Amino acid sequence: MDFVDRSVIITGGTGALGSAVVGALLEAGASCHIPVFNEAELTHFPHRAHPKVATYPGGNLTDEAAVTALYAKVPQLWASIHIAGGFAAGPVTTTAKAVLMGQVDTNLVTTFLCCRAACVAMAGRGGRIVNVTARPGLEWRIGAGMVAYTATKAAVAALTVALAQEVVKDGILVNAIAPSTIDTPANRKSMPDADHGAWPKPAEIAQTILFLASPANQVTRGAIVPVYGKV
After folding, report:
1. Cα–chain center distance at 169
2. Which strand (E) or helix (H) includes residue 31?
3. How far is CA 95 from the centre of its chain?
4. What is the dihedral sign for C-alpha 23, 9, 123, 152?
5. CA quadruple 180, 185, 189, 193: dihedral positive or negative?
6. Active-site residue numbers?
7. What values do phi and psi take at 149, rounded to 5?
8. Is 209 helix (H, G, I), strand (E, B) or coil?
9. What pLDDT, in 10s, does the model give residues 166-211?
10. Left (φ > 0), alpha (ψ -120 to 50) or beta: where does 185 sit?
11. DSSP characters for 43-96?
């Protein structure tokens, strides 16, 4: 999984999973380009001073023009990894339209716009795209109590498979991962009594993402890869 002289965009790159992915990419020689919506996130981002990391503050990934401008700044884009997203829970009877549309924007629209911009940037050269859906996006019944989230993550899975078929002729391989609950400090705090040891770790998930995004991946496309850990 050699990323030397390869440019990679990572959305959500300053979060727990994103930081693990960026760290693994840097070890593999990649140049990492990270849009940052909330600049306060950089305070805790361990790779912010790395010479092969470029951050782009003010990156609103729901803004079509902003996404287009971001991808235009990255020369010779090889891979685009879309970790940015959001979570909302609650019974459907109390889920307002604003919450639903927020999930559509945060999970589906950001992924769609970044996929589209990546395909434009990779035209004529090929590349790799990795999206992030979620276990409820594949196993819908466990999405009870978080219907808006589940529906938008299922849409990301459908987008991935359809797009993979559309752009394979251009040498672009599109895949996604589907995590269960990731072992992060925030998730441990919100679920203190869960079996944290069974949750997949960010560094472990990062290795799956790296393979899918790497030139070593020559045949896998349209896959939604479960990364459930031992849950």
Report:
1. 23
2. strand 31-36
3. 25
4. positive
5. positive
6. 149
7. -60, -50
8. helix
9. 999 999 999 999 999 999 999 999 999 999 999 999 999 999 999 9
10. alpha
11. GG-TTTT-TTEEEEET--TT-HHHHHHHHHTSTTEEEEEE-------B-GGG--
**Residue 110 in tokens:** 């950001």
Assigned domain for 1 exists:
no
Q: What is the pLDDT of residues 50-79, one digit of tens each?
A: 999 999 998 799 999 999 999 999 999 999
CA–CA separation, 130 and 144 (whole Å) = 26
Q: Which domain holds residue 84?
A: 7-227
Q: Nearest-CA neighbor of 115 among 153, 171, 172, 170?
A: 172
Which position has the token pair 């944290």? 196
Tell me, yes or no, whether 41 lies in a domain: yes
The token duo for 98 is: 């604003």
Q: Please, what is the end-to-end C-alpha distance for the chain in angstroms?
A: 28
Structure tokens at 164: 């993979």
Q: What CATH number should be reported for the domain holding residue 19?
A: 3.40.50.720
